[in-house]
Design a protein that fits this description.
The structure holds 3 protein chains of 3 kinds. The relative contact order of chain A is 0.13. Chain A is mostly helical. Chain A has a domain of 166 residues: MetI-like (MetI-like fold). Chain A is built from 13 helices and no strands. Chain B is mostly helical. Chain B has one domain: MetI-like fold, CATH 1.10.3720.10. Chain B contains 12 helices and no strands. Chain B is flat and about 75 Å long. By secondary structure, chain C is of the alpha/beta class. Chain C has 2 domains: 141 residues, Periplasmic binding protein-like II (D-Maltodextrin-Binding Protein, domain 2, 3-Layer(aba) Sandwich), CATH 3.40.190; 215 residues, Periplasmic binding protein-like II (D-Maltodextrin-Binding Protein, domain 2, 3-Layer(aba) Sandwich), CATH 3.40.190.10. Chain C is 47% helix and 13% strand. Chain C is built from 17 helices and 14 strands. In chain C, the strands form 4 sheets. In chain C, strands 2-1-3-13-6 form a 5-stranded mixed β-sheet. In chain C, helix 8 packs across helix 16. The longest helix of chain C has 38 residues. Chain C is globular, with a radius of gyration of 25 Å. In chain C, 48% of the residues are buried. The chains are: A mainly alpha, B mainly alpha, C alpha/beta. The interface between A and B is large, with 95 and 90 residues.
Chain lengths: 276, 292, 438
């Protein structure tokens, strides 16, 4: 009996490992090929690089203006996420707790637009951006992302708030807390798991977003990482080693960020799961 | 009456920041978009005419558009099943492991850390070079299929890459949901004699309904608007064999006869279709959710 | 209490928005207003007067040449300061070439047009009708452009854009393989068939097929239609625009097309244009229907390659075997540019007598004007020889929807999901639709 259990456990790990390999395969390939010269890469994709020249990385670091692009992207992502989390948690919580017709209407209003594809609002959105004179402004772009991202986040917070017992809030109100205090001291901490999810998903979305910054930002000093990477795609030929190495460089901060945040989720969950 | 008004005002205050940015950057452009769908604007020139509902009438007989919608529908159905099953399975498996949780979480989430445009290109490399290399040199001849040229295999390739790219995202929600399941409920169930499968099915699953609803909603929505993955792999080809609705609209707006107004009309129709599907889906699934 | 908090929050938000809004507006405003205010006084500027400040916005679609053009813009800035006493700041925007058109359209349609922008010559007609092009016929640059190149950027007798990338092209071939098999350049369709037979016998694959991207199969129609129409039915294109022609008349373009498809590499649908160029450079095939713009990838992959160009024969009449002369990237001037003077000066500078050659050579562009004095590469020389002998034709100007559809249908034809007759009826329908939309 115990042996069977062991076997099953080992099997599960093996399967997980295989799945993980499958997941990483393209990334490993990109990594391997980023060390080759363009000539080697074009000739044979599967071969091991003849020398591990870090030249490509240095070249790309320079071509992409890595540090500057990184700074821009971090600013956008951090700013966007902060706004989205703050605005959406507030809105999502209140909409869920208020059981009036107006709240149902507002909820629908926020959610329905999630279904609108970006391409159909792209040009009108650009006109709004021009009208507000925030074209080419990273700060303005942060607010645009907030506007685009609150829908999904409100949907998520709305759903999650349902799992928080309303008695907690009621007793706080009886104790004399205002709505704001209830929200910041009681509710918001309990939303940690879903806040983490919202943070990660929105940070990633903004980090890797392409079309919106492309249209709004015309000064290449304000380019994000992905925009800088994209300039490496030529019309008839691509500088693949540069592209792949820029991809790796662009992904490293995200991996670090996620690995770090991942621990926070654990802590947050540990607190929350002891409830009930 | 007065209490409700008070409640509404309080709610409006809390919602105001979100509402402002949302209205300015999403609603207004969306409404303008609908306006454009009733013109024959080509996205370039200054002048255009209002054509009322002509664009919509034309859509009814646009066979390529409906073909692309059907193809997208096929894609959506397969994706909902495949991606959610895999994500659920992975999330459950990882969360129940004793060790290496963090490692696996990071690995499976990695595809989401890179843009799907780049991800699509890398998989394109694999389907057009690596698999053939393996088929020719390592004798794995089952890889020797026409992954881009044959619509059947191209569809499979698209599903593989799309799942690769979305499973990580869905996993996060499932994992958050699993961790919201109180330990004592699970313990109580196993004390009562349930094995892990029964515990899962009767205790855990109902409690993560919320996450399941969200994930299916997201897959449905993202699926209908799929563009990057397909465009990078096949460009919609051969011909239009793998053209999704979003690609059809994009080409209408920026290639071919460059008809931005008509393309926006098509976009609006797509939006209505998606809205119908998600409304049905949410209705069906919200009923199952439990509010503690 | 809570209401006040809420109000404060929103007030802060609105304030910060307007603050950052006015901040970015204010940085661009002074430059513009100053330029406009002093525009009237630029007439009489002496060497001791303050240089007027101006900004020039340029948008281009080839980020791979970013360095070369940034240097060139800097040279322009210096020149303007020295010669005209104007302190110019050139804002050069180079989004990727894939998304270029969407971004350009977004800018043009929202009144945020750049002063100068690159444009594919196929789009000149559309942009001209939309009123987005300036007539450059009276400029100094007009006289320098080679006549046959000039024709590709002229409409209604007006020179509408400065040509930048222009090429004469046909079929690329590997000179070494041909020499090894003792083959001469084919001048007729029968000779081409023979070339294929000899190559196959000696173990080489005749043609490189790379149909993953829809524009590559379209090159075959560009060549075959071009040759056929220029040689045999010169009024076909005009009649098609009037809904009076049919693709049935040019059905025998499938002669060479079938020959190419049947004597080509495997897995064509899984080979992209760049991969095809790389494989061709490595000898996987002896010939490649591709333009000379692929030479970049080819020479990177195999710097020792001996690359040549020959005109694709479409029938057995040697007089119809011609190279295609086309211009891809051109530079247009926006008619409502606030710095029209400067914009025109820049346009002229692109074909500057002194500096243009260096720029074109640095970007590996082909010479296209009298001011270009550098020696072109060998394959360019091959093609130019045809042109010099009068054996060339202007690339046919077809509606973009038509060329896109040709690419798509040829993909389907290759995977055998449509027949030649279906191709013909489809193309006719698409052409008529394009005429209707025009």
């Amino acid at each position: 009996m115990k042996q069977k259990r062991m076997l099953v456990q080992v099997l599960i790990y093996v399967l997980l490992g295989a799945a993980a390999l499958f997941c990483l395969f393209p990334l490993l390939m990109a990594l391997m090929n980023s060390f080759k010269t363009n000539r080697e890469l074009l000739t044979n994709v599967m071969s091991f690089p003849s020398t591990f020249n870090f030249d490509n990385f240095l070249r790309t670091f320079d071509k992409m203006n890595y540090l500057r692009s990184l700074g821009n992207t971090v600013f956008l992502a951090a700013g966007g996420v902060c706004l989205i989390v703050l605005f959406s948690a507030m809105a999502g919580w209140k909409i869920c707790r208020t059981k009036t017709h107006l709240s149902a209407f507002l909820f629908g209003l926020f959610v329905f637009s999630m279904l609108i594809p970006f391409s159909s609002i792209m040009i009108p959105l650009f006109r709004v951006v021009l009208f507000l004179h925030i074209k080419n402004s990273l700060v303005g772009l942060v607010f645009v992302y907030a506007g685009l991202g609150v829908s999904m986040a409100i949907f998520l917070y709305h759903g999650f708030v349902k799992s928080i017992p309303i008695e907690l809030e009621e007793s706080a109100v009886i104790d004399g807390c205002s709505s704001m205090q209830v929200f910041f001291y009681i509710i918001f901490p309990m939303l940690k798991p879903i806040t983490a999810a919202v943070c990660i998903t929105n940070a990633l979305w903004i980090w890797n977003d392409f079309l919106l910054p492309l249209i709004v930002i015309s000064d290449n000093k304000k380019y994000t990482l992905l925009l800088s990477t994209n300039t490496l795609f030529g019309q008839y030929s691509n500088d693949w080693t540069a592209i792949l190495s820029s991809l790796i460089l662009a992904a490293i901060p995200v991996i670090i960020f996620y690995a770090f945040l991942q621990k926070q989720i654990l802590h947050g969950i540990a607190d929350g799961a002891i409830k009930g | 009456m007065k209490k409700k008004t008070k409640q509404n005002i309080s709610m409006l205050l809390f919602t105001l920041p979100a509402l402002i940015v949302y209205a300015v950057f999403k609603l207004i452009p969306a409404i303008s978009g609908i306006y454009y769908s009733m013109t024959d604007w080509n996205g370039l020139g200054k002048g255009f005419d209002m054509v009322g509902l002509d664009n919509f009438k034309e859509i009814l007989s646009d066979k390529y558009y409906w073909q692309s919608i059907l193809f997208t529908l096929k894609y959506v159905i397969v994706m909902i099943i495949v991606a959610n099953l895999i994500a659920l399975l992975l999330a459950a498996t990882i969360e129940s492991r004793q060790r290496a949780k963090g490692l696996f979480r990071t690995i499976f989430f990695m595809p989401n850390m890179i843009s799907m445009i780049i991800g699509g290109y890398m998989w394109m490399f694999i389907f057009t070079k690596v698999l053939y290399y393996m088929a020719d040199n390592w004798g794995m001849t089952f890889f020797d299929k026409s992954w881009i040229g044959d619509p059947k295999y191209a569809f499979i390739a698209i599903i593989i890459v799309a799942s690769w790219g979305s499973v990580g995202y869905l996993m996060i929600f499932y994992m958050a949901a699993f961790q919201g399941v109180p330990m004592n409920l699970k313990e109580a169930a196993s004390l009562d004699g349930a094995n892990s499968w029964q515990t899962f099915r009767h205790v855990v699953l109902p409690l993560i309904q919320n996450a399941v609803t969200i994930c299916i909603f997201w897959t449905l929505n993202a699926g209908f608007q799929v563009f990057d993955v397909v465009y990078a792999l096949t460009g919609g080809g051969p011909g239009r064999a793998t053209q999704t609705a979003a690609i059809n609209i994009y080409e209408e707006a920026f290639r071919g006869n460059v008809r931005y107004g008509y393309a926006t009309a098509k976009s609006t129709v797509l939006f209505v279709i998606v809205m119908l599907f998600t409304a049905i889906q949410l209705r069906l699934m919200k009923r199952k959710e439990q509010e503690l | 209490m809570k209401k006040i908090f809420g109000l404060m929050l929103t007030a802060c938000m609105v304030l910060s928005m307007t603050a950052c809004g006015s901040q970015s507006a204010s940085t661009t405003a002074p430059a513009e207003t100053k330029a406009q205010a002093t525009a009237g006084t630029t007439a009489a500027t002496t060497a001791t007067a303050e240089p007027r400040e101006a900004e020039l916005n340029i948008m281009m679609s080839f980020p791979q040449y970013m360095d070369q053009w940034e240097t060139y813009c800097k040279q322009f800035e210096d020149k303007m300061l020295a010669e005209e006493n104007i302190k110019v700041k050139v804002n050069l925007e180079m989004p990727s070439s894939d998304q270029y058109e969407s971004v350009l359209q977004a800018r043009l349609s929202s009144g945020d047009a750049p002063d100068l922008y690159t444009l594919h010559s196929n789009n000149i007609a559309t942009y001209y009708k939309a009123g987005n092009l300036t007539d450059l016929s009276g400029e100094a640059l007009a006289g320098k452009i080679y006549d046959n190149v000039k024709a590709t950027v002229t409409q209604d007798g007006k020179l509408l854009a400065v040509p930048i990338e222009s090429q004469a092209w046909g079929v690329l071939y590997n000179k070494d393989i041909f020499k090894e098999c003792g083959l001469a350049v084919p001048e007729t369709l029968d000779e081409l068939k023979n070339v294929c037979a000899v190559l196959t016998e000696k173990g080489y694959t005749p043609f490189m097929l790379a149909y993953q991207e829809q524009w590559v199969p379209q090159l075959m129609t560009a060549l075959t239609l071009g040759g056929k129409v220029s040689g045999e039915i010169p009024d076909w294109v005009d009649r098609m625009y009037k809904d009076e022609g049919s693709y049935a008349e040019v059905k025998d373009i499938f002669g060479p097309i079938d020959l190419i498809m049947q004597n080509g590499t495997d897995r064509a649908m899984e080979t992209g244009s760049e991969a095809g160029s790389a494989d061709f450079a490595n000898g996987k095939a002896a010939m490649y229907v591709q333009g000379t713009w692929a030479s970049g990838t080819i020479m990177t992959t195999n710097p020792e390659m001996n690359l040549g160009v020959f005109a694709l024969p479409i029938n057995n009449n040697k007089a119809d075997t011609l190279v295609n002369l086309s211009t891809s990237t051109t530079l247009a001037v926006y008619p409502e540019s606030k710095e029209m003077d400067l914009a025109l000066k820049f346009a002229n500078y692109v074909l500057d007598d002194k500096d243009s050659s260096a720029l074109f050579e640095a970007c590996s562009f082909n010479p296209l004007a009298s001011c270009h004095t550098f020696t072109p590469s060998s394959w360019v020389a091959d093609a130019s020889a045809y042109v010099a002998a009068g054996r060339s034709y202007q690339d046919l100007v077809l509606p973009q929807a038509v060329t896109d559809e040709q690419g798509k249908l040829l993909q389907e034809y290759y995977v055998k999901s449509i027949t030649q007759d279906e191709f013909i009826s489809q193309m006719d329908a698409v052409f008529k639709e394009a005429n209707k939309q025009a």
